[in-house]
Design a protein that fits this description.
The structure is a single chain. The protein is α/β, with parallel strands linked by helices. It folds into six domains: 57 residues, ADC-like domains (N-terminal domain of TfIIb), CATH 2.20.25; 254 residues, Rossmann fold (3-Layer(aba) Sandwich); 193 residues, Dimethylsulfoxide Reductase, domain 2, CATH 3.40.228.10; 118 residues, Beta Barrel (Barwin-like endoglucanases), CATH 2.40.40.20; 111 residues, no CATH class; 57 residues, Orthogonal Bundle (Arc Repressor Mutant, subunit A), CATH 1.10.10. It is 32% helix and 19% strand. It has 31 helices and 34 strands. The strands form eight sheets. A seven-stranded mixed β-sheet has the order 5-4-16-15-14-6-7, with helices on one face. Strand 31 and strand 32 form a beta hairpin. The protein is globular and about 80 Å long. Bound molecules: ligand MGD (2 copies), iron/sulfur cluster and molybdenum atom. One ligand MGD binds next to helix 18, strand 15 and strand 21.
């Protein structure tokens, strides 16, 4: 291994989370943990990490891990089995199903969290050896509309630009992207450009998110109406002489038709304002900015992709860049931000059901070419089922055997309750997982296969700017966990394909993948990493981050695409696309008068199987909530901090109400992260409609018609315990990790006396219980001690005066308590030496709201910068800076009032 893989003390690897693809230095501590820091030399982050990346060290413990193969017995319980039995059973289960019902009766459902090597072998097995293309992935829920939009415009799934463009742009347009929370390190890069060079930022999002700073232009577009805005922009560019006629003539087709359609959709400012709900003056400002700024990058994410017309949205954006020739040049271009760490790698190998491999589709030439390269006996001849259709087919009993790897569809697919039921229909459900339990596993797996997790696995991922980075193992494989690629190839070998799946290492798979990308390519396909096809194992181990294309024998001066045309369409010209008239798939109705928008929060990752293990990350927004506009809240009788039942045609959940002026009237926003494992009634995916985009098959996750009504709970409270925490079934609860244990916040209509009875059950019999009961006031508090150590707390009180938990949590997290503080626990307040920090604002340094407010009111820190200096808050990842600014501004208003 050469110097670049091995830092003197640490292993160089790549973050487990988002598509920014930050480089990480991991220093194992020899006890199963590791110190995590940003890799100063990685070109994606230059040393920075966000709150999630920084907290990766808190997610490495093995308590929740699946460490052995498990098989379901006749009585329905899971029991440990051997790898030999597990692999043989999976192989024979799939082989028998295929023999009996044909290749299309089986399917794989994969994930952008697999490594490229894992993905490659799974795709090869299904599309070349089983003979079906029923391989789809959670990227269908994530990047599919961008893929489809790219292929329509460019003839290939190409992201033309690089992160460096964000440093050089003079205008950055963020469409449907909460970059500050979801791509935090890139966002910091954009802010650095803004501060140093004065780049302007425009945010197009129905919500005013943390991404919007006061001096940015925010366009609160009506849900789904982005195409009206970008059609209007195209018209404006045409009418104000801002087109690049030379580029249009030399390198594109379809402009005339696209402009005609744009004029129909968006004839003038009045029409655009009516369609988008954005003020005419703001639309005009945006158009002027775009027209007048040569160097403009338009970044977009799920507000664009996860839409019933997501592909058209993508093309409406790309049209504007093509029409101005602003593509593939420094500081300009359309830029799809990828979600998962290997969303891009999955696209490279052909993880989607409508892609074959190495950016080839299902045309006869490609099928023949890939078939010869793989020496495949049974090439799939046509596209397979896309995720939502795939689960429909499972529900109908047409798919009989399914293998899920690295995704939790019982939470993350639309209509998640249906998905959970559909999984129960399967004759064979195999799940490769890191964790012992999640909602998908709970739906009833027949076989659980323990996969290596981040820190243990070894291979490559590709980030948003097409940069391939190594993920390297820095921990040993725990228990019997094995890499995903190993599991797949072992099954393939047992299915009779030993020769084609006989790989000694991830490096061997990567070489084959790279060779396929270059096979009969000759410049006809964008994805070509032939230069990496002959890497030795050592060179693979030492591989520095490398951007594609990386053609053999052709070192690149510039890794951007399309500045001089050369698109991958048959005539090598880009296509401007005429989008359909923008319209919601289903408008609100009297029964479902609001639109439910769903998305992410700063410190959680998807279904929380990993970020949920971190006390730091759980502290920011600990409970599942729904954001509601003040007027809607008033109309529906909701109060801030109360509860509401949100229901759609497909399902319902109960969430805490957060009244927020940043929320657009008529819309709700709920985060996607909570599951049946972490909350009582907060599986938001159950509410989402299974409506998909006609080109990409990507579901509309941002606009499901919904109803909302208040739910009342007489009591609220919290529980803390050192071990597992089980709350009564009829209560509403949300669970989170705290240092040294677990916590739950709950609400209930059971009388306090019943909660008192719960206390003993919660903490077991061996503890010393201190109690306080005030029945008339509906208040009960219990603290359990063992050898002087606080081992549990249960606090219940009336909902309108709910017990505050920050101080008690701080006491619980302290290792041992001196006597005065033991007595103080029941008071619910902190005493000397243990200040109550309040709800966490800065996750990196664990700085709470009260601490920050105290610093402001004492005059010690009156600006965001001063808070950073004295408390460190906001000085690491910067994700909390928007909140700090609000706190400082709020404090000033109070002062002057
Ligand atoms: N903290 C955190 N970061 C993550 C993840 C995570 O789970 N947590 N997941 C990663 C993954 S896989 C992904 S895909 C990305 C997603 O990153 P983002 O796309 O930035 O995240 P979302 O919150 O899903 O949605 C973005 C925004 O789209 C807006 N939106 C909704 N409807 C519309 C519309 O019609 N038009 C427009 N213009 N905007 C609309 C929403 O209000 C929301 O603020 O994040 C990645 N990063
Ligand atoms: N309503 C709504 N739904 C959405 C979205 C939305 O915005 N709104 N966003 C969609 C998007 S963009 C995405 S990307 C999805 C994400 O949704 P999911 O992919 O379902 O979410 P995760 O929690 O990331 O699930 C990953 C699972 O794989 C396991 N795992 C992690 N690493 C590995 C590994 O290396 N090997 C194996 N075998 N297992 C592993 C984890 O323990 C976890 O159980 O959600 C989608 N669903
Ligand atoms: S921005 Fe954060 S989550 Fe994304 S790769 Fe970087 S450290 Fe990881
Ligand atoms: Mo995603």
């Amino acid at each position: 291994m050469n110097a670049s893989a091995q830092h003197p003390l640490a292993v160089r690897t790549t973050c487990a989370y988002c598509g920014v693809g930050c480089g990480i230095l991991a220093k194992p501590d020899g006890r199963g943990g590791a110190a995590i820091s940003g890799d100063p030399e990685h070109p994606a982050n230059f040393g920075r990490l966000c709150s999630k990346g920084s907290a990766l060290g808190e997610t490495l413990a093995l308590e929740t891990r699946l460490l052995h193969p498990m098989r379901r017995g006749a009585d329905g319980t899971m029991a440990r089995t051997s790898w030999d039995d597990a692999l043989a059973s999976v192989a024979s289960g799939f082989a028998e199903t295929i023999a009996k019902h044909g290749p299309d009766s089986v399917a794989f459902y994969l994930s952008g969290q697999l490594l490229t090597e894992d993905y490659y072998v799974a795709n090869k097995l299904m599309k070349g050896f089983v003979g079906s293309a029923n391989v789809d992935t959670n990227s269908r829920l994530c990047m599919a509309s961008s893929v489809a939009g790219h292929r329509r415009a460019f003839g290939s799934d190409t992201v033309p630009g690089s992160y460096a463009d964000l440093d050089e742009a003079d205008l950055i347009v963020l469409v449907g992207s909460n970059t500050a929370w979801c791509h935090p390190v890139l966002y910091q890069r954009m802010l650095a450009n803004k501060r140093a060079r004065g780049a302007r930022i425009v945010v197009i999002d129905p919500r005013r998110t943390a991404t919007v700073e006061d001096d940015d232009l925010h366009l609160p577009v009506a849900p789904g109406m982005d195409t009206a805005l970008f059609s209007g922009l195209l018209v404006h560019l045409a009418d104000t002489g801002a087109l690049d006629h030379a580029y249009l003539a030399a390198h594109t087709t379809g402009f005339t038709e696209a402009l005609v359609r744009a004029r129909e959709i968006a004839p003038d400012l009045t029409a655009i304002a009516a369609a988008t709900g954005v003020a005419e003056a703001d639309i005009a400002r945006f158009f002027d900015l775009f027209r007048g700024t040569e160097k403009v990058v338009t970044c977009y994410s799920q507000g664009v992709n996860q839409s019933a017309q997501g592909t058209d949205k993508v093309n409406a954006i790309i049209n504007c860049h093509l029409a101005t020739g602003r593509i593939g040049k420094p500081g300009m271009g359309p830029f799809s931000l990828t979600g998962q760490p290997n969303a891009m790698g999955g696209r490279e190998v052909g993880g989607l059901a409508n892609q074959l491999a190495a950016h080839m589709g299902f045309d006869a030439d490609a099928i023949d070419r890939v078939g010869r390269f793989w020496r495949a006996p049974a090439m799939a001849q046509r596209e397979g089922l896309k995720a939502v259709q795939l689960f429909d087919a499972i529900g109908r009993g047409e798919i009989k055997a399914l293998w899920i790897m690295a995704t939790n569809p019982a939470v993350s697919l639309p209509r998640a309750d249906f998905v959970q039921q559909a999984l129960k229909q399967l004759d064979l459900l195999v799940i490769s997982e890191n964790v012992l339990s999640n909602d998908t596993v709970a739906a009833g797996a027949h076989m659980l296969l323990p996969a290596a997790a981040w820190g243990e696995k070894d291979g490559t991922v590709t980030n948003s700017e097409r940069r391939i980075s190594r993920q390297r193992a820095f921990l040993p494989l725990p228990g019997e966990a094995r890499p995903d690629w190993w599991i797949v190839t072992q099954v393939a070998q047992r299915m009779g394909f030993a020769e084609a799946f006989n790989y000694a290492s991830a490096a061997a798979i990567f070489r084959e993948h790279a060779a396929l990308s270059a096979f009969e390519n000759d410049g006809t396909r964008d994805f070509d990493i032939g230069a990496l096809a002959a890497l030795s194992d050592d060179a693979f181990n030492a591989l520095d981050p490398v951007q594609w294309p990386a053609r053999a024998g052709a070192p690149l001066a510039d890794s951007r695409f399309f500045a001089n045309g050369a698109y991958y369409t048959p005539d090598r010209k880009a296509r401007l696309i005429a989008p359909a008239l923008p319209a919601l798939h289903e408008a609100p109705s009297p029964a479902f008068p609001l639109l439910l928008n769903t998305g992410r929060i700063r410190d959680q990752w998807h279904t929380m199987t990993r970020t949920g293990l971190s006390p730091r990350l759980g502290a920011h927004l600990p409970e599942p909530f729904v954001e509601v506009h003040p007027d809607d809240a008033a109309q529906h009788g909701l109060s801030d901090g109360g509860f509401a039942r949100i229901s759609t045609r497909y399902g319902a959940c109960v969430l805490r109400v957060m009244i927020s002026a940043g929320q657009q009237r008529g819309t709700l926003f709920a985060p996607i992260h909570w599951s049946g494992e972490t909350a009582a009634a907060a599986r938001v995916g159950a509410l989402v409609a299974p409506i998909t985009d006609p080109f990409s098959g990507q579901p509309e996750a941002k606009a499901t018609p919904a109803a909302i009504a208040p739910v009342s709970h007489a009591l609220r409270g919290f529980a803390l315990a050192r071990g597992a925490l089980a709350l009564p079934a009829e209560s509403w609860w949300a669970r989170m990790a705290v240092r040294g244990g677990a916590a739950a916040l709950f609400a209930s209509n059971a009388p306090v006396a019943e909660w008192r009875a719960q206390a003993a059950a919660l903490f077991g019999s061996g503890v010393e219980l201190a109690e306080y009961l005030d029945e008339p006031r509906q208040s009960y508090r219990a603290a359990a001690f063992e050898d002087g150590k606080l081992v549990g707390c249960l606090f219940v009180g009336p909902a309108e005066a709910a017990p505050q938990w920050d101080a008690v949590k701080a006491l619980f997290e302290a290792e041992a308590l001196p006597a005065p503080q033991r007595r103080a626990v029941l008071s619910g307040r902190s005493t000397d030496g243990l200040a109550d920090p309040g709800p966490t604002v800065c996750a990196c340094f664990g700085v709470g709201l009260h601490t920050i407010r105290d610093a402001i009111t004492s005059g010690a820190a009156v600006s965001v910068e001063a808070i950073g200096k004295s408390l460190r808050a906001g000085t690491n990842c910067g994700s909390c800076l928007p909140e700090l600014r609000k706190i400082v501004a709020g404090a000033k208003v109070v002062e002057t009032a």
